[in-house]
From TrEMBL:
Matching Pfam families: 4HBT
InterPro entries: HotDog_dom_sf, Thioestr_dom
Protein name: Thioesterase domain-containing protein
The Thioesterase domain, residue ranges: 61-143
Membrane-crossing residue ranges in chain numbering: none
Amino acid sequence: MKDAKKISIQETYGERFQHCWGCGPKNDKGLHLKSFPSDDKKTVRAKIIPNEMYTGGVPQNLFGGMIAMIFDCHGTASAAYFAHINKGLEFDENTLIGRFITARLEVDFKKPTPMNEEIEVIAKLEEIGERKAIINMELLAKGEIRAKAKMVAVKVKDNM
């Protein structure tokens, strides 16, 4: 039996939502951050090595605004995924997932995030409602937590 291709949540966004600079697959100049659900459906993970242009005031450390942007894109993708599976729906290449946007994002910077290192962001669902999801995230580099975030994400209305 052949393994199914893992697809990112961003690949399942509707056409009008695929142009985000951080995670949009159709933004030629974007970062193309990709978020992947775990097999147990309890976490969503993203990995990225940011370009050196995103350095902070200390050249060997990542700019804090970039960390917040990574949390923003990954958190809203995670919220969309958790809402989708909470409805009992399958997630596969035929999915057209609902879209979420950030209503609130709290970031706690724990340690400097080094440049030229792979960053992993792990998202977990805290709470899900009809239109809102609360997502907790950790950003790791070199196996250490560098930042944590809590997001309140809301479902996009059809007329947005």
